Structure formats: C-alpha cells, structure tokens
Amino acid sequence: MAEQQESIISRAAIAGHPLHPMMIHFPVAALLGLVATDFAYFWTTDPFWARASLWLAGVGAVGGWIASIAGLIDLLTVQRIRQKISAWCHAIIAVMMLSLASLNWMLRYRHGEEGFEMWAFYLSLFTAGLIAIAAYLGGRLVYEHAVGVDVD
C-alpha cells in the first residue's frame, strides 16, 4: 500500500483554498481558444475572428499574469514548494509561456487585423504547447507532491 503524503499548504489561499489553481483556468481556456479563433480567421478571413483572437490573447495574457502572482507567492514563501524541482520547472515554463502570450497580444494590438499573419498562429500554437507542459508539471505538484491539497 502506498504511503500517504503530507500536504503542502498554500499561503496564497482563501479559507484554505489555494488561489493559483482556481485562477488559472480562465486564462488557460482563453489561450487555448485563441488557437481555434486564429484557425477560424485563416479559414474564413472574417475580421470577427481576428477581433476575437485579440480579446482572447489579452484575457489570456493579463489573466495569466494575475494568476501567476498567487503561484509566485507560494513558490517564494513555502520552503517545501521551493524544494521541488517540478515547482521551479513549472514556474519557468509558465513565465516563458506568459511572455509569449504577452508578445502575441501586444503585436496583435499594435497591428490589428491588417498585420495578422502566420506568426500569430505560430505564437498561439507554441503558447498552447507550453501550457500543456506547465499543466503537466502543475498536475505533478498537486497529485504527486500534494501541494495545496488537504490529505487529512
């Protein structure tokens, strides 16, 4: 029988509920939806999809940075989290992903639908790939290391 692991309590929490895992779902959904709206724009050339992509890129980037604050608080203030290689890898991948998402949004905002080229779709795809890696590492923190999980 597997040994039960002691939970690692989140410091960025409300009533014992960790904020980072609660806050990250909406930005992730926006950035993954961005791939679909980019594809729809290339398929139809309807400006609606370029506008939808702009909004999804912005919501994903800004929401992701806000959610990352809660994760950063836990990383920097909880020693047992700092000791996990998965936590550092998750943080580094997330910063890379959010940097790309922010660049994607900034370029879309500056150039509008006139400047909407294949780079936008490639940035969206690369960002989605980094989301998958960060999500896997975040899952390891929860399910293997019991970060933010009450196992009592």
Automatic annotation (TrEMBL):
Transmembrane stretches in the record are 21-43, 55-76, 88-107, 119-137
User: Which protein, by its recorded name, is this?
Assistant: Uncharacterized membrane protein
Q: Which residues form the DUF2231 domain?
A: 16-150
The answer to whether UniProt assigns keyword Transmembrane helix to this entry is yes
Which keywords describe this protein according to UniProt?
A: Membrane, Transmembrane, Transmembrane helix
